[in-house]
Amino acid sequence: MEKSITYLKKQRRSSVQILYKLSILNEDIDKIKQEVLDNSQFDKLDDDLINYILKILDQYETIKQSILKLIPNNWSWERLPNIIKAILSVSAFEIINNINPKAVVINEAIEMVREFLPSWDTNFINGLLDKIN
C-alpha cells in the first residue's frame, strides 16, 4: 500500500523528534531504540514508523559521518544546532537509501528548518543535502 504524503511527513517529523532527543540528551542509541520499541516515551507509533525510526538509528553513525564529510571546515558537528543535526540526519538517511526523491527530501528539510529554526540559513541545508549520494 502506498503511503500518503501526510503519513510520510508524520514519519519524517517523528524521526526528527527522536533524533533531536538523542542529541539534546546525549543518550545512547540503544537506549533510544528501546524507548521506541517500548513506545512509552512517544505518541503511539505504528509498526511501519517504528521500523523506519529503528533503521535510521541503526545507520546513525554512518549517516553522521556522511554529513561530517560535507560540512565546511569552519563547522563541526557540535557547532550545529541539535534540531539541524536531527533534520540533516533524517534527510540524509532518506537520500542515501533512496526512500524519496532528493528534491522532495530537501524541500521537506527546508520546511522543517523554517518551522523549527526560522533564523537558520536554509542555503546551508540545501547545499549540504544536495551533495549527499
Automatic annotation (TrEMBL):
Domain NusB/RsmB/TIM44 residues, every copy: 10-132
Could you give a single Gene Ontology term from the biological process aspect? transcription antitermination
Q: Does the keyword Ribosomal protein apply?
A: no
> Which molecular function GO terms apply here?
RNA binding
Stretches of the chain forming a coiled coil according to its record: none
Mind listing the UniProt keywords for this protein, alphabetically? RNA-binding, Transcription, Transcription antitermination, Transcription regulation
Record-stated family: Belongs to the NusB family.
Q: Name it.
A: Transcription antitermination protein NusB
Q: Which organism is it from?
A: Spiroplasma gladiatoris
